[in-house]
Amino acid sequence: MEIIGVIIAGIIIGALGKLVAPGDKDNIPIWLTVVCGIGGVLIGWGIYSAFGGDGSDGVDWVRWIVAIAVSAVLVMIASALTGRRTTRV
After folding, report:
1. pTM for this predicted structure
2. Which terminus of the chain has a lower count of CB atoms within 10 Å, N or C?
3. b/e for 52-62, b at 16 or more Cβ within 10 A?
4. What is the pLDDT of residues 2-14, one digit of tens each?
């Protein structure tokens, strides 16, 4: 059940990361956005834990914000490396 939760969170976090990433990031496919979201969730939670985040009784907003920020960085990297060209030569 944990894997399904990470995949669902990755879809949502990937979309939010793509939304907050600066510039035109609509040139990467949706599957790569989901992969960036899953990576953002896993890496973001690791960074959060490494800096002393221990969770809270309710929704831990800081952990989710870190995951979105990491996902946005991953989306920018993926767009720079594999983005489809929008101009024709």
Report:
1. 0.80
2. C
3. eeeeeeeeeee
4. 888 888 888 888 8
